[in-house]
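Notes, p. 3: input format for complexes.
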Amino acid sequence: MRGLHLPGLSTLVLVLTLITMLSGTVSSLAQEVTLRAVSAFAEGTQFSKNFERFIEKVNQDGKGLIQINYIGGPRAMPPFEVGNAVRSRVVDMANVTGAFYSNLVPESDAFKLIGKPMSEQRQNGTWEYLNALHNQKLNAWYLARQHHNVPFHIYLNKKIDKLDFTGLKIRVTPVYRDIVLALGGAPINTAPGEVYTALERGVVDGYGWPVSGIFDLGWDKVTKYRLEPGFYSVEVNVLVNLDAWKGLNEAQRKVLEQAALWLEGLDAENVATNQAEVERQTKAGIIALDFGPEESKKFVQRANDVAWETVIKRNPEVGAKLRQLAGN
Ligand code: 173
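Output follows (328 residues plus benzoyl-formic acid):
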């Protein structure tokens, strides 16, 4: 006669544990995740706008999977602290330029020198290399880079008659520091939020900024000249804390990755935006200072040379690799 086999206590415990584990996994898979995000640029301004569109898209596409809680811009967090906040997961995600976290990733000075479109950078290994750099040095996933085809300029309130900044105090970030020094100017590092007052009070005679965005914070009212030509390439990155990234499941990552590619695609709008901004500056009475093609070419070459010199001096190995990827 076969006896009735009742499960022993240990088998019961095992089965119950498995059920608990499985249901835990299932519920965590099904759970919607919310990431906290900040921008290093003021809300609604040129270099936050597309990131804000990206957030809207993720919140639309990611319903039930992933949402972004946008805490805001510099009113929520000082711009130069954003990199560290991503590193330590004070926030999960940020919209920030490498220039604002060069204290943590000194090689970020080279990002402005890499001017290829992101579609190409994702093909030729640049994205992968920069992602690894962000993983190691900033505990961050390099989700997207924006603002391809947008150059920087130096804006001035004092007229110069040659490409020489001797005697001029110019507001900088690490983006412009080397070229301002190379042309004899005195660089003064400030966050964007301090530019208006610095100009108004004459603390600085000029500032570095991209071709677009000077109207957002009213700088047109305190700006006389825009120096030609533009130089380098704006980069504003969407970073995700690496632990937050690793904690996402495949479907959640997919929502972010697809939105990231969509965000990079918005760069197709930049040429028209740049042109409209220049026209608007002219209408606002801002005069272009242009010393002709030969001087302009020398200026751009000098700007590139001094910036690469700094990058390579700081980290010869990574610097050389970045220069090879940049192809300039
Ligand atoms: O000038 C700046 O504050 C700066 O470095 C920057 C970088 C990218 C976009 C806009 C500004």
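The chain has twelve helices and eleven strands.
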